[in-house]
Amino acid sequence: MRALRVLIGLLLLAGAGFGGFVYTSDMLAATQDSGGGRPERGPLQVRTEAAQTMRFAETVEAVGTARARESVMLHPPAAGRVTEVAIDPGARVSEGDVLLRLDDAEARARLTATEATLTQTRAAHDRLQALSRSGSVTEANLEAARADMMRAEAEHALAETALRDRTLTAPFAGVVGFTDVARGELVDTATEVTTLDDLSVIDVAFSVPERYLSRLARGQLVELTSAAWPDRRVIG
Fold first, then answer.
1. Which residues of 32-46 are buried (b: 16+ CB within 10 A; e: fewer)?
2. β-sheet bridge partners, residue 167
3. pLDDT tens by residue, 146-191
4. Three-state DSSP class for 214?
5. CB 146 within 8 A of CB 126
6. Residue 72, beta-bridge partner list
């Protein structure tokens, strides 16, 4: 009885295996018949491009400060009473234009006195020099006359400088600022008269991170923008 059960089990297993084999064969055949086989590959498409040399720009952004090429605070060259203020805030001036005048009556009087002394000492020196050729004047007298003439020339030069110092002029061309100085006011060399800025060239100071230091070189392009004119780009 037991042997019969074993035989029946073996027959069932053999039948199941044969059925699975047949089913698998039918499925593979159906797949191949429906065109599911391995597709044929067409030619590989290749796109060619000519080699070109291109430049890649590395941009470094930094915040800078704009400043005039030259900018000074002007002070009177001497002390005195103001007689004229020729400052129009925001106006452009040329080098040498008069900005401020001080009372110069005393300076002019001193210059006139030194001119008279200089004329007198020159005449005395020339007269003694002429007499020295005939031996009528000693060398000591001639040297004394020459010394008097040189002192008169020095005093005259000082008087001319003092007269020039009664006028404040623009040291360079630029734009003048505001002033609080008025006619009749007493000023000295510490009084701030106005500012003068040369805006023909604007310098921009900015810092670059240290890691870019080796890549910086003279002549590289700098592009600037300002919050006042956001649509305007300045190349430097």
1. eeeeeeeeeeeeeee
2. 101
3. 999 999 999 999 999 999 999 999 999 999 999 999 999 999 999 9
4. helix
5. no
6. 196
